[in-house]
Amino acid sequence: MKIIDLLKNEKLSLSFEVFPPKTQSGFETVKTATEEIAKLHPSYMSVTYGAGGGIGQYTLQIAKNIKDNYNVPTLAHLTCVSSSKETVAQKIAAMKEAGIQNVLALRGDIPQEMQGADRSGWDFRYAIDLVRTLKEAGGFCIGGACYPEIHPESANQKEDILRLKEKVDAGCDFLTTQMFFDNNLLYSFLYKIREAGIDVPVIPGIMPITNANQIQRAITLSGSFMPQRFKILVDKFGSDPAAMKQAGIAYATDQIIDLFANGITNVHVYSMNNPDVAQKIMQNLSDILGK
Ligand code: FAD
């Protein structure tokens, strides 16, 4: 099923994100964890595109397994930066063969060793190049990434939203956000992008922080603002793993309830291959989700 059709449903829902193993040796563990999450019947599951496998084979294998054996629609991530046209064509062909209908078209982070390289000759410099290629290939529901707190490489939000509008106009059917810990940042972002003429559905991404070590990593990766309310919670419970997990899940649940109350119908949860976290959030919202 295409995500854009699924989003037409007014019913409140959650989707979950998982990541593929880096090597074959981790495959079975990841497969089992993703299957446990699929058994919770989320609206869809996204599978990130990591370092493992020449053509993102583990992303495809995990996505195909969930789709074919658990009847959960999947969204396969794909990055393109510095790839050749031939490599990307191969990856798209592999996705079609696996029956993947939904793709999150991403640029990917520029590898450290390429930071200073002349990018003018690259076939794919930005995600928009991949969106155009996927559109030409036809048959895909295409998603793009967006950043309520601005992409770290953008000079300012006006510039970032201008680039986002170009990407959407090139063929994005929907957008998924970077994680954020203060919903007001999302509401203000939505207001600005709607004003800029971006009218595709935006799926907010929520990351439950369940251990203190995750926090620094999350901030480094996303540059997200940590509200005082969240910092206090980490100060109090960060050294007690069980308490931190419970508090982090409660905080994420609160964010999701507020999003639903403010008109969002599907929230994407960065569940990080953790069925227990996914299950607890579902349980917390069971009446709200009608499950
Ligand atoms: P783009 O949309 O290309 O934007 C990147 C930057 O370039 C922005 O600052 C933008 O404003 C600017 N820009 C865009 N077009 C132009 C232009 N024409 N001229 C000048 N500037 C321009 N990474 C992975 O490796 N694997 C994953 O699975 C993955 N999943 C993700 C899922 C989500 C929901 C999000 C938010 C991010 C994910 N990432 C993933 C990280 C992502 O690859 C990085 O954030 C990357 O740095 C940017 O990717 P993008 O697709 O947003 O790029």
Structure description:
The protein is α/β, with parallel strands linked by helices and 291 residues long. Helices cover 47% and strands 13% of the residues. The protein is built from twelve helices and nine strands. β2 (45-47), α3 (57-70) and β3 (74-79) form a beta-alpha-beta unit. α2 runs parallel beside α3 and α2 (27-38) packs parallel to α11. The mean pLDDT is 94. The structure holds flavin-adenine dinucleotide. Flavin-adenine dinucleotide (FAD) binds next to β3, β4, α5 and α6.
Biggest beta sheet summary = 9 strands, parallel
Helix/strand-derived class? alpha/beta
Beta content: 5-15%
Number of helices: 12
Separation of the first and last Cα atoms: 21 Å
Provide keyphrases for this structure.
291 residues, 12 helices, binds flavin-adenine dinucleotide
Question: How are the SSEs ordered, and which strands pair?
Answer:
Elements: H1 3-6, E1 13-18, H2 27-38, E2 45-47, H3 57-70, E3 74-79, H4 85-97, E4 102-106, H5 127-137, E5 141-146, H6 157-171, E6 174-177, H7 183-195, E7 202-203, E8 205-206, H8 212-222, H9 228-237, H10 241-261, E9 266-269, H11 275-284, H12 286-289
Parallel strand pairs: 1-2, 1-9, 2-3, 3-4, 4-5, 5-6, 6-7, 8-9
Helix pairs in contact: 2-3, 2-11, 5-6, 9-10, 10-11
The protein binds flavin-adenine dinucleotide.
Flavin-adenine dinucleotide binds at residues 48-49, 77, 79, 104, 106-109, 126-128, 145, 151, 153-154, 160, 163, 167, 176, 178, 205.
